[in-house]
């Protein structure tokens, strides 16, 4: 019986030895220290060829993503994001896991906040229990920075880290010559076009406006041909921004006085007064709050606007609500204002000034916004990195397939040109309210544009004591 | 502890939980708002005393006076809602098959969230494709749609209609309960005296529910003075074009939470407190005197 097994066993063993000799020695094995064989030719008198084998074992180097030194040991930091859960839970958790590899010992407690973020963050700052790191829309940064609630990122981050962002984005909120945020993901606002309405109006994609002034003519043509008005919107969170970029209006003079009642400003306001009067743009869309973006988008989705200024990330909502319209959509760059500049449309990450762990918090802010994290995020949703290095990935040079992707190949160029041209505006919220009243008075109340702006400038200067 | 002291302390011990609760959640906030009204305070930085500056500012603030006026205009809601609620209560105060379904239907707006109702009303009055515009166009009353919610003259009336629609069911229940407490004998006596249907209600029902009318008048007028949700939702938190829909509480909110002028908002709150307190006392006194 034993002999009966002995022969097959011997054959199997022999075959195994032959097969293992033929195959790769490293296949299906865990990584081993690399063995490098160098052939060194030494010329000696005796002309003997000698082979020297050198074994090199790489030592683990510093994690290239750990860019902040002396991070507090045992730090526990809280990180709030804005409207990212549950859709991006995995991305955030994976990125935090990578952060933990780069900065072992730092614990991150992540929480997502939604509509009440601004109030909650403000209240937590007042109560002294603010989260260490927070994702907020860039428009909100100025208020917190002016009230000395945020960490100065120009000091907290080494110059090499600051240089990883587009310069215009890192410095987009400048208070006293310093930046108080790091730019996170960017949107590229363009025209989301309903080609059906263009066809009805006898227009083509080439007829879409390239400049602010062409936009007015375009809307008049569409209205005349189809009866459908445009749905232009001002940035109600910062109306002076609309004025500066679209109208090339100087907001403040060298003495810090408001001067937005210039002929350029009057011309800008008259533009909207005329369009509302002519019915070439919808009156209930013009001053929608930024939080009501979807009201405008719904109007567009129901086929009542030739185009809507938005980012490609919202196209999926149009597709979900009106799949029939999806095939008629196109995304192209929006008209450039009289300033020739493009405003940033971005999300920021800020660090609360009173954090117990400023280095760990700055490290997380830098990590979430580093080129790799940004690239991975861009692959999940139509947002764009604030870091030029991310665009070196072939993902950004692939020809677009879906409508949502049409901006991707030109995104780097657009984002690199985005910068803040506004001065540091004191008491922004209150000044913005004064400007809003002036615009409403002119557009809806029949007050001449010149008078409305003159009154607003007087009120704004009185508010800041100038 | 002797029995005398214990018997004196006992009621206070029973009252203590309620007193502590009221002190923390009513008295302290009231005193804090009173203090903040004399300061410049933006939540993020400590309050800085400014004396009477906030109250002086109120005198010259056109939007404050507009909001005050709008709040008083809003009181028109009170008599309308009382009349409608009484009418509905009388109509539903009968034993018919399925009457409880009708009573429940009128109560649905009361238990529906004001934001959901606001969105529905925004849709109703939508300037492009809203049913109200559709109806008016179909009837030939208008020849082009009206963008109701951007017309300064329409915002307040629409908000008032919404308040009436939302509140009438609640007040109807109050009146229905009061009507059901009126003895049937009184109606029989009125019938024997020759009262017709209307006279029966005028001479029996209305006097019989007068305490409920006093209650509803006070409650609904205070609610009208403090209206916020309707304005917030219908105007997308702006107060409407040229502040045309701004009321006292809305303006207070806007100053505190939009513009971070908590000190100034506190001054508005103190003025509102004085107005509502005076109004309540006046309301109760007038209605009590009429009852006497």
From TrEMBL, chain A:
Cleaved signal peptide residues: 1-27
Keyword Signal: yes
Keyword ATP-binding: no
Protein species of origin: Chloroflexus islandicus
Keyword tags: Signal
Organism taxonomic ancestry: Bacteria, Bacillati, Chloroflexota, Chloroflexia, Chloroflexales
Segments forming a coiled coil: none
Protein name from the UniProt record: ABC transporter substrate-binding protein
Sequence intervals crossing the membrane: none
Automatic annotation (TrEMBL), chain B:
Source organism, top-level taxon: Bacteria
GO aspect biological process, one term: transmembrane transport
Start and end residues of each ABC transmembrane type-1 domain: 69-283
InterPro entries: ABC_transporter_permease (IPR051393), MetI-like (IPR000515), MetI-like_sf (IPR035906)
Membrane topology, record value: Multi-pass membrane protein
Predominant location: membrane
Pfam hit, one: BPD_transp_1
UniProt xrefs under CDD domains: TM_PBP2
Protein keywords: Cell membrane, Membrane, Transmembrane, Transmembrane helix, Transport
Localization annotation: Cell membrane
Residue ranges crossing the lipid bilayer per the database entry: 12-38, 72-92, 104-124, 154-179, 208-225, 231-253, 262-282
Tagged with keyword Chloroplast: no
GO cellular component, one term: plasma membrane
PROSITE patterns: ABC_TM1
UniProt similarity note: Belongs to the binding-protein-dependent transport system permease family.
Name listed for the protein in its UniProt record: ABC transporter permease
Source species: Chloroflexus islandicus
């Amino acid at each position: 019986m034993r002999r009966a097994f002995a022969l097959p066993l011997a054959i199997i063993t022999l075959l195994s030895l032959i097969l293992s000799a033929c195959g790769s020695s490293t296949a299906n094995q865990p990584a081993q220290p690399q063995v490098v064989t160098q052939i060194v030719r030494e010329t000696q008198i005796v002309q003997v060829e000698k082979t020297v084998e050198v074994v090199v074992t790489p030592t683990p180097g510093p994690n290239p993503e750990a860019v902040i030194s002396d991070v507090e040991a045992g730090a526990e930091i809280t990180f709030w994001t804005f409207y990212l859960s549950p859709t991006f839970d995995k991305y955030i958790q994976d990125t935090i896991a990578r952060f933990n590899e780069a900065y072992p010992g730092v614990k991150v407690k992540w929480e997502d906040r939604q509509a009440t973020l601004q109030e909650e963050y403000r209240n937590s700052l007042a109560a002294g229990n603010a989260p260490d790191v927070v994702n907020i829309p860039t428009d909100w940064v100025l208020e917190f920075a002016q009230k000395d609630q945020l960490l100065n990122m120009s000091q907290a981050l080494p110059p090499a880290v600051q240089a990883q962002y587009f310069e215009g984005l890192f410095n987009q909120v400048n208070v006293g010559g310093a930046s108080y945020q790091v730019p996170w993901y960017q949107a590229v606002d363009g025209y989301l076009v309903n080609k059906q309405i263009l066809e009805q109006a006898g227009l083509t994609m080439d007829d879409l406006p390239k400049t602010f002034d062409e936009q007015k003519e375009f809307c008049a043509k569409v209205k005349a041909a189809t009866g459908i008005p445009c749905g232009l919107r001002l940035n109600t969170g910062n109306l002076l921004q609309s004025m500066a970029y679209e109208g090339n209006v100087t907001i403040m003079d060298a003495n810090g006085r408001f001067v937005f009642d210039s002929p350029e400003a009057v011309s800008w306001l008259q533009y909207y007064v005329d369009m509302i009067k002519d019915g070439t743009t919808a009156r209930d869309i013009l001053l929608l709050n930024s939080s009501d973006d979807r009201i405008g988008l719904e109007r567009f989705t129901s086929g009542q606007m030739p185009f809507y200024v938005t980012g490609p990330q919202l196209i999926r909502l149009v597709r979900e609500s009106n799949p029939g319209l999806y095939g008629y959509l196109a995304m192209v760059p929006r008209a450039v204002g009289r300033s020739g500049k493009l405003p940033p449309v971005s999300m920021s990450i800020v660090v609360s000034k009173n954090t117990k762990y400023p280095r760990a918090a700055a490290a997380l802010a830098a990590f979430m916004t580093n080129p790799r994290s940004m690239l991975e995020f861009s692959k999940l949703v139509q947002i764009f990195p604030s870091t030029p290095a991310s665009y070196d990935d072939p993902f950004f040079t692939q020809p677009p397939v879906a409508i949502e992707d049409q901006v991707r190949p030109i995104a780097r160029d657009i984002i690199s040109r985005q910068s803040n041209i506004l001065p540091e505006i004191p008491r922004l919220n209150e000044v913005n309210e004064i400007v809003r009243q002036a615009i409403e008075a002119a557009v809806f109340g029949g007050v001449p544009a010149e008078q409305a702006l003159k009154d607003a400038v007087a009120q704004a200067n009185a508010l800041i004591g100038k | 502890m002797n029995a005398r002291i214990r018997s004196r302390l006992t009621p206070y011990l029973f009252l203590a939980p309620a007193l502590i609760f009221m002190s923390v959640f009513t008295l302290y906030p009231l005193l804090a708002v009173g203090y903040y009204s004399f300061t410049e305070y933006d939540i993020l930085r400590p309050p800085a005393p400014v004396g009477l500056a906030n109250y002086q500012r109120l005198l010259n603030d056109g939007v404050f006076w507009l909001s005050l006026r709008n709040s008083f205009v809003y009181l028109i809601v009170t008599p309308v809602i009382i009349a409608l609620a009484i009418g509905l209560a009388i109509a539903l105060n009968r034993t018919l098959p399925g009457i409880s379904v009708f009573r429940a239907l009128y109560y649905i707006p009361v238990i529906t969230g004001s934001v959901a109702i606001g969105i529905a009303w925004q849709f109703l009055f939508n300037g492009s494709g809203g049913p109200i515009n559709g109806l008016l166009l179909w009837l030939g009353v208008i020849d082009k749609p009206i963008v109701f919610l951007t017309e300064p003259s329409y915002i307040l009336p629409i908000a008032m209609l919404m308040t009436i629609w939302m509140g009438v069911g609640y007040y109807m229940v109050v009146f229905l309960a009061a009507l059901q407490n009126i003895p049937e004998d009184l109606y029989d006596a009125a019938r024997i005296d020759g009262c017709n249907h209307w006279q029966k209600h005028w001479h029996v029902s209305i006097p019989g529910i007068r305490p409920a009318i006093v209650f509803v008048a006070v409650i609904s007028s205070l609610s009208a003075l403090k209206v916020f949700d309707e304005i917030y939702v219908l105007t997308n938190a702006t107060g409407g074009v040229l502040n045309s829909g701004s009321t006292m509480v809305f303006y207070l909110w806007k100053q505190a939470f939009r513009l971070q002028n908590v000190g100034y908002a506190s001054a508005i709150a103190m003025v509102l407190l004085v107005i509502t307190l005076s109004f309540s006392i006046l309301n109760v006194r007038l209605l009590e005197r009429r009852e006497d």
